[in-house]
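Our consortium's second objective concerns turning raw sequence data into structural hypotheses that experimental partners can test. To show how far this objective has progressed, the report includes one record in full. It was chosen at random from the queue rather than selected for favorable results. The single chain below, 127 residues long, was entered without modification.
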Amino acid sequence: MQILTHKGNLKWIRTIGEAEMINGKCIRVFGSFQDIDEKKKALIKLAESENKFRTILEAEPECIKLLGPDGKLVMMNPAGLAMIEADNEAQVIGKSVLEIILPEHRAAFSNLTKNVFKENPGNLHLR
């Protein structure tokens, strides 16, 4: 929740409380406020950044994919899904990208991927 500070600024806080009851009647409330303003603002900025990233990723007309070190797909944008004729990410996430690459190109792609994970950039042009 947010509070208004003495200086008129809004600040994010976390509040925890517990009522002391006697005969079903609340006689006092014990509680605390925790200042989470910096953390909450950082989370808001992160969410905004994620939204911008997703917008760019989904609008990109080229295939963009994210692979794990084991060569399995972690993420693929809509253009990539359309390219491989997948209806949704669930059909391909967790599967080896080598499954969609023709056998004659798998070794070259696998070598490129291993080099990239060793922080050696590279290109692969398939004909």
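The partners drew two points from this record. The chain has a mean pLDDT of 93. The longest strand covers residues 10-22. Both points have been shared with the crystallography group to help prioritize constructs.
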